[in-house]
Amino acid sequence: MDTSAGLILREVCKIIIPAVLLFALYVQFHGEYGPGGGFQAGVIFAAAVILYALVYGRHKAQRILPLATVRVYIAAGVLLYSGVGVATMLRGGTFLDYNVLLHSPQHAQHLGIFLIELGVGITVAAVMITIFYVLDEFCE
Amino acid sequence: MDIATIVNFSLLTLMILIVVVLIRLQSLLAIALSSGIYSLLSAGLFVTMDAVDVAFTEAAVGAGITTVLLLGAIAVTGRKQTVSRHGRFLPLAVITITGAALIYGTLDMPPFGDPGAPIHTHVAPHYLTQSAEEIGIPNVVTSVLASYRGYDTLGEVIVIFTAAVGVLLLLGRTTGSGRK
User: Fold this and answer.
1) ipTM topping 0.85
2) Where are chain A's structural domains?
């Protein structure tokens, strides 16, 4: 894909991308209180990175987030999610029964949901960025 | 007519229009963009049904990322649709039969919004009434997705993981060994 974007596009993206990244984090960590969660946050985060790659070129984006790093994050999210499940089993509960994680069931549920949503967000963002990188690389 | 009916009616009309346009278009680029618009309209429809979480996902995934990835795929493969050499009657027969079967299937379903429908009487009342006490977070959608149905969500994440593994296996290697 063309890596040279116009001046206006580049300047506008400079303003938009930090806001999109911040919104992704808001959606990620506010999912228990408002609409959203790991899936949506991951996609929004990936959209910001993809927008950056489209406007400034994939090579600049890969200087911040190389494909090798993103590939690790794909597995890291799934590992975090299933790790929570294993942790609940080690503490004497059933798989993904968060209640045993902390002293009070409600706090434990908060912690469990926070962690697995984070796992979802990491995997989804990494997968979307990877697919884009690979497709873009294939085009060259 | 109240405002919800007007909004629903306009959204559905626009969606039908987009589908007609989609059928008639030949350029894959235009088709990818129109299906993005279709997703955005259905996200609007989900908002009118108070399913904001679903609408959010549809807008971000369907209208946003999918369109970009489709455009990427088109850049790899080519912009023009290859014209089919088959006759028109076999595809028409297939979609007519499938469509008729689907409509026949809906006849068994409970009416739209029926409070006595099985989906509203099984575990949903428990989730809605007990979520605040058992999970303690305001968004019931999140508590169902992440806690009551945490196992299913793990499955979904693994599906996405598998998709990335597939893409890397199919396309990732070729780029490393040599550029064409």
Assistant:
1) yes
2) 7-139
